[in-house]
Amino acid sequence: MELKKLLKQHTVEKKVVSPNTTPTGSDPRGFITLNLLALSSSQRKKCELCDNMATLMCEQCRVTFYCTLQHFQIDKDFHVEICSTVKKLKQPMPFSSQKDTRERWIKQREFHINELFLYSWKKGQADLGKGLYDDAISAATVAYKYAQVLYGQSENVISPMLVAAECYLKKENIKQAEWFMARTLNIELNKPDIRPSIKATIRHNEGLLAMAKGDVQEALMNFAEEVYQATEEYGPTHRKTTLGFCHLGLLFHQTQKFDKSSSLFRQVVEIWTDFLVPNMENMTAVSVVPTIKVKNEETVWIQDSDRFDAQQILTMCYTNQKERYESSGTDKQDVTKMDLARTCYALSVLLLISKRPSEAEASANEALRYVGNQQAQEASFVKKLQRVVKLAQRMLAQTENQDPS
Ligand SMILES: [Zn+2]
Ligand SMILES: [Zn+2]
Fold first, then answer.
1. How many Å separate Cα 239 from the centre of its chain?
2. Fewer C-beta within 10 Å: the chain N or C terminus?
3. Distance of CA 133 from the midpoint of ligand 1 (Å)
4. How many CA atoms lie within 13 A of 246 on its CB side?
5. Closest Cα to residue 133, out of 78, 58, 55, 68?
6. Confidence class of residue 16 from pLDDT cuts 50, 70 and 90?
């Protein structure tokens, strides 16, 4: 909550950034190699990205260090964006007898730290959503560092650590993921009043970690707890519960408990369909009559993060349902053609909302093929699919008209 409020107050975009800070005559590589022998142990620094001892230093701010050229290069693109702000933090407190001069200096310093935290935290989340894991790690690590300065051991420190841990998991770097998770768990132990949604994310990452290590029981326990915590905060049929449900399904699928996995995937698809369809109606209601502009911003409910979640989760459901269905080629008790049709429908609605009309049309047509000779019994569902096809074609025609070529 606190974090959200802060983010609203400060929309720190690229203005923190002043990228072309390299003065002429400096090393184009942008770093200085440290002479380790000349440094006493107290002068030795840790790498910006890991716990190893630093051998390089950013030559601009001179307060950012790296263990190796590799870690310098991974962090470079992100660091350029915050380097000048970091540099400002280095300015010593003015030697002044005036109390307000010193107070101003302290205020300014806090402002810069806050700026750095918010900018990097937002960027870390966005990059994770885009699948840019290296960039997300750089940003999240910086956010974690400054969150510690600002908030000590609190929820706000956990969030960036979870982003970093998830990125390392995606990159299959178990050791680094464990490093961040261990610290997260430590804060969680000392702070029992953490919000359920954050606990849910912690359990999710722990579940992924257990899966990566092949510990199915441990993973199951964590995903079940994730669902429980997400339900605590959002309620049982909210889309935020579906990530946990979907991973439980995945584990049941892997352990051949197909009746369980199939009913979970079905439930997940249902929740997303209920969320996505009104969004599609809302969006197309505007584009059908182009003269009417959306007056009220609030009518747009879907966020980028929802879109990313939906894409990831529905694709996971579809892949598993299809695999199960195709393993024998006929309807099973647990996965039917209608299940596949319903998942394709949800995906087609999502694609339409994401303004990808040709893919949306293809997905809706795929659903129609699954419905096949059951068209008569499924008349109302077929109508919904035909509507997606129509909307997709209309959207395609509109974009072609707008395109002068
Ligand atoms: Zn390093
Ligand atoms: Zn720097």
1. 15
2. C
3. 16
4. 25
5. 78
6. very low
How many residues are given for the chain? 405
219 pLDDT higher than 80: yes
List domains and CATH numbers for the chain: 1-92+102-151 (no CATH), 259-405 (1.25.40)
Question: Cα of 280 to ligand 1 centre, how many Å?
Answer: 45
Q: At what angle do helices 155-170 and 2-9 cross, to 10 degrees?
A: 90
Q: Are 60 and 80 in contact (CB under 8 A)?
A: no
- Distance in Å, CA 61 to ligand 2 centroid: 4
Task: Tell how far CA 240 is from the center of its chain.
Answer: 13
Average pLDDT over residues 155-168: 91
Nearest to 371 by CA among 340, 393, 350: 340
Amino acid symbol at 97: S
Q: What is the pTM of this model?
A: 0.76
Report CA-CA distances (Å) from 233 to 24, 96, 226, 241, 324: 54, 50, 11, 10, 33
Q: Which ligand is nearest to the CA of 32?
A: 2
* Alpha carbon 165 to its chain's center: 12
Triad 5, 239, 3: Cα angle to 5°: 15
Please enumerate in sequence order all residues whose Cβ is within 8 A of that of 123, keeping only pairs 6 or more positions apart, or say none. 78, 81, 135, 136, 139
Angle of helix 337-353 versus helix 357-371 axis, rounded to 10 = 170
Ligand 2 centroid vs 84 CA: distance in angstroms?
A: 7
| Distance set, CA 127 to CA 118, 132, 164 (Å) | 14, 5, 11
Could you tell me the two tokens for 205? 């990452």
Given a cut of 70, whether residue 149 has pLDDT beyond it is yes
The rounded Å distance from CA 194 to ligand 1 centre is: 30
Q: How many angstroms separate the alpha carbon of residue 176 from the centre of ligand 1?
A: 11
Ligand 2: centre distance to CA 31 (Å): 9
